[in-house]
Amino acid sequence: MKQPDGLYIVLISVHGLIRGHELELGRDADTGGQTKYVIELARALAENPQVSRVDLLTRRVIDPKIDRDYGESIERLSSRAQIIRLSCGPRRYLRKEVLWPYLGSFADYALQHIRRVGRLPDVIHSHYADAGYVGLRLSGLLGIPLVHTGHSLGRVKHQRLLEGGTSEENIEARYNINQRIEAEEQALGAAALVVASTQQEVDEQYALYDNYQPKRMVVIPPGTDLERFHPPSRFWRNPPIEREISRFLSYPRKPMILALSRPDARKNITTLIRAYGENPALRQKANLAVVAGNRDDISTMEKGPRTVLKEILLLIDRYDLYGSIAYPKHHDISDVPDLYRLAAQSKGIFINPALTEPFGLTLIEAAASGLPVVATHDGGPREILEYCKNGELIDPLDADRMGEVLFEALSDRSRWQRWAKNGLKGAHQHYSWPGHVTKYLREVSKVIRKAKKPRLQTKKKSRLPVSEKVLVCDIDNTLTGDREGLRSLFKKLKEAGTEIGFGIATGRNFTSTLKVLKEWEIPLPDLLITGVGSQIFYGPNLVEDQSWQQHIRYRWKREAILEAMADIPNLRFQPRSEQLPYKISYYVDAKKGIDIPAITRHLRRLDLSANIIYSHQAYLDLLPVRASKGSAVRFFCNKWGIPLEHLLVVGDSGSDEEMLTGNTLGAVVGNYSPELEYLHEDPSIYFAKEHHAWGILEALEHYNFFEQERIVAVQKEAI
């Protein structure tokens, strides 16, 4: 069947509440600017004639506390763009920091969606660290380019929290910051293109990362919906939100200082209120409107926003600001453009006093509405004001100066008019969505041209006698170790006939594997993965999969890695027979050990990408970033049309970790290596009591794998 003309682009944004209408911006820390960005990007891309399809993949949420919209599997944004919601852990709504254990499963569901589409995307674009983790897996499995946008970077957040006095332990406990930073490092290492909003983000924020490669980064500022954000016309009638604001104010016709953000400590709303409350002239000159998300009962909110809102109310009372400040409990997304227009009509000003601001989309919206701005001198606002010349930057920690700048901005009418005019011109010239998409597609097309686009593999089984379900096992200490157990296992497999296929995934090389199979009288498998996932062979003639070799060569610089590893202590090169074109292997001095994070940082700083696998506390293997046992079994399933839920994988060491997690049926034999101990926390992985082949038999029984009547699957999501 002929594929449609035009690009197929997959966007991934896992966390938050994402829908195409009435976005609940400010509801919590996860439903903010990124949510709006990906929705508007999807729509804008779909309007471009170069694009035939856009799928925005996000998390499906079924929770009585939120709208039922977020439980819908598919939501149309336009004729060529849609939101696809996939399972990811528990059905209930979760904050992004606790989603990490479920992202492997999300990636597997995403792969299934792409197979249902029947067409490989031309590019995958991940948004934020969690989506980067998913995008990295999909890009690797499918062999297509990854584009990444960080939005808010973990290393920057980590620095700010430490500077603010939060302890390292509390940061890790609350934000899982190390996992987030590692996911960002991996995404940056594998991404063919990183899209940033500002040059400051490239030069200062991404520069904090080991995988900082500015040559692969491009600055494309987000667009703004200029149909929604525009100045008030002469015949514009004041909207309903005006009544909600005016009921707080004694003199509602005064100029309005507008602040619009989530109730987050980083947004620095309390310093703004101090600046206003301690400046009598400013209080006399203007009203202050603080629109800080939506709330029903502050006492029922999460600790962060609850603390901020309580402090706001205490400051209002301390400075006796009643009648001068509006702080509405509710507003809709449709009210936001009207809020800017109300402030512009009153000859007021918009302020963003955030401690840190990666971009500052509200500043663009204000500019497009003819409303001058005062903004933090951190991050994106510097570039926005450089382009638009529509306001002034301030130190967000200097409350006195903040108040003075606001008073001066409101007192100079001719400068106010100049700023309003400049902002309109700048927003249209630099921050429109059509302009954003034009530059985006130009950069993405370069990436696509460099990549060899693979063809979607068919489900045809060809010569390989693949059954509907497949058992895949490690060899050493999993299959081997007990001859009686091994004989019992293969007796069961023989009785199952063609119902159950048999595969092996091992760290051994091809020759060594055949030798141990002969020694232990193990039949040739239907699937053989050797070299820790660097080679794939299919039975019965064990023909090597050349497409896998082409797939994993991405960013592999073998000689440079060998040179970089030459001076690493406590390592000894394994024999030449263990070295492969896509595998470098060492013995580790068990007494002295090795610092894996230090090796990872060392390679990243040299712009060398490798998958580092440490197993049995004795072996170190370096492979291409796309190569591993887990990636190999998924490549096999994708190629032969085997659902991951029909694959039972059994292992015993760290090299088996990736194939045990996700949507495969995972099992660990009783004699496992200590590096798998932490997987006890994953309830979807079965830990057998029996050792060696007896443990495999126990896992087969646990999963009812020989049952003929129904397809066996384990849903890896909590109810």
Automatic annotation (TrEMBL):
**What are the residue boundaries of the Sucrose phosphatase-like domain, all occurrences included?**
468-704
Q: Would the keyword Cell wall biogenesis/degradation be found if you checked this record's keyword annotation?
A: no
Which reaction does this chain catalyze?
A: beta-D-fructose 6-phosphate + UDP-alpha-D-glucose = sucrose 6(F)-phosphate + UDP + H(+)
Which EC number(s) are documented for this chain?
A: 2.4.1.14
Domain called Glycosyl transferase family: residue spans:
245-424
Q: Give this protein's Gene Ontology molecular function annotations.
A: magnesium ion binding; phosphatase activity; sucrose-phosphate synthase activity
> Where in this chain does the record put each Glycosyltransferase subfamily 4-like N-terminal domain?
32-228
List the Pfam families hit by this protein, alphabetically. Answer: Glyco_transf_4, Glycos_transf_1, S6PP
* Keyword Cell cycle set for record: no
Q: Which SUPFAM superfamilies match?
A: HAD-like (SSF56784), UDP-Glycosyltransferase/glycogen phosphorylase (SSF53756)
| Source organism superkingdom | Bacteria
Q: Which UniProt keywords apply?
A: Glycosyltransferase, Hydrolase, Transferase
Family in the record:
Belongs to the glycosyltransferase 1 family.
Q: Protein name, please?
A: sucrose-phosphate synthase
Which source organism? Answer: Nitrosococcus wardiae
